[in-house]
């Protein structure tokens, strides 16, 4: 089975995404911020990391950098509402750091789930 580490500080969005991913038969490991994600990340078990970029404790940009040090080939999808500055700058940085796909919040759930499947192929 395919494992996804889902990192999102908004508990409602995290729960909705987890439910949607599990319906597609993915194993989902949840984390509420980058610090918790690093504790839960298992390089041999996690196939994809979906991370928000603006979070307390450790943001998604720092998380992507740390994960790429441990497992350079890890696949990443970054999501962001971007706060007051908007998502474009943060998503651009995530792509530069190696994110396989980026989504600005709010996003179309079906397009998002299709991209998850594509990235995992």
Short description:
The protein is α/β, with parallel strands linked by helices.
Quaternary state of the chains: single chain
Number of domains: 1
N-to-C terminal Cα separation, in Å? 13 Å
CATH class: Alpha Beta
Number of strands: 5
Number of helices: 5
> Mind telling me which CATH architecture this is?
3-Layer(aba) Sandwich
Average pLDDT works out at 93
Biggest sheet layout: 5 strands, parallel
Topology:
Blueprint: E1 3-7, H1 11-23, E2 27-31, H2 34-40, E3 48-52, H3 60-70, E4 75-80, H4 88-96, E5 101-104, H5 109-120
Helix pairs in contact: 2-3
Plain-language structure description:
By secondary structure, the protein is an alpha/beta fold. The protein has one domain: Response regulator (Rossmann fold), CATH 3.40.50. 43% of the residues lie in helices and 21% in strands. It is built from 5 helices and 5 strands. It has helices spanning 11-23, 34-40, 60-70, 88-96, 109-120, and strands spanning 3-7, 27-31, 48-52, 75-80, 101-104. Strands 2-1-3-4-5 form a 5-stranded parallel β-sheet, with helices on both faces. Strand 3, helix 3 and strand 4 (75-80) form a beta-alpha-beta unit. Helix 2 runs parallel beside helix 3. The relative contact order is 0.17.
Kindly list the characteristics that best describe this protein.
Rossmann fold, 121 residues, globular, five-stranded parallel beta sheet, single chain, 5 helices
